[in-house]
Amino acid sequence: MLFPKKVKFRKWHTGRQNAKKLAKAVDTRGVEISFGSYGLKALKYGRLSSNEIEAARKVMTRYATKSGKVWVRIFPDRPFTQKPPEVKLGKGKGEPMGFTAPVKAGRILFEIDGVPDNVAQEALRKAGTKISVKTKVVSRNMM
């Protein structure tokens, strides 16, 4: 699982939850394929947990074998908190449970290179099923 070595603040503010504004949120950085030939692009806003990222990475590396290379372009650095089950309201904010990576539409999440085209597309498609945001496979030629 990915998580930062050290954080300045244990707990963050929750952030905006307006679904209409988040649906329009489009990323401006990390929107082009930089390293590989194929990439997995997010189409909607979402927060990806470190477990989701790790599961997708494992699927891709299994397909990449020894000749292929996989790049993870996102990192979970946003802590999220959760209260234990069956606890009444009040008594402060819950304890930190893990880390998430906020992802806006257009962001390239993963890249792959060094494998045949059909293998790369299948690896990225399977990785997309492990992630809670809607994604699509893009290639360097398409951009």
Describe the structure.
The longest helix has 15 residues, at 50-64. Helix content is 24%, strand content 27%. The protein has three helices and seven strands, in the order H-E-E-H-E-E-E-E-H-E. The protein has a domain at 33-85 and 93-139: Ribosomal protein L16/L10 (Aldehyde Oxidoreductase, domain 3, Alpha-Beta Complex), CATH 3.90.1170. The model has no long low-confidence stretch (mean pLDDT 92).
Oligomeric grouping of the chains: single chain
* First and last CA, distance: 31 Å
What is the approximate shape? elongated
CATH fold descriptor of the domain at 33-85 and 93-139: Aldehyde Oxidoreductase, domain 3
Strand order of the largest sheet: 3-6-1-7
Unreliable runs: none
- Give the integer mean of the pLDDT values: 92
CATH class of the domain at 33-85 and 93-139 reads Alpha Beta
Main beta-sheet annotation: 4 strands, antiparallel
The CATH superfamily title of the domain at 33-85 and 93-139:
Ribosomal protein L16/L10
Which percent range describes the beta-strand content?
A: 25-35%
Would you summarize the structure shown here?
With 143 residues, the chain is of the alpha+beta class.
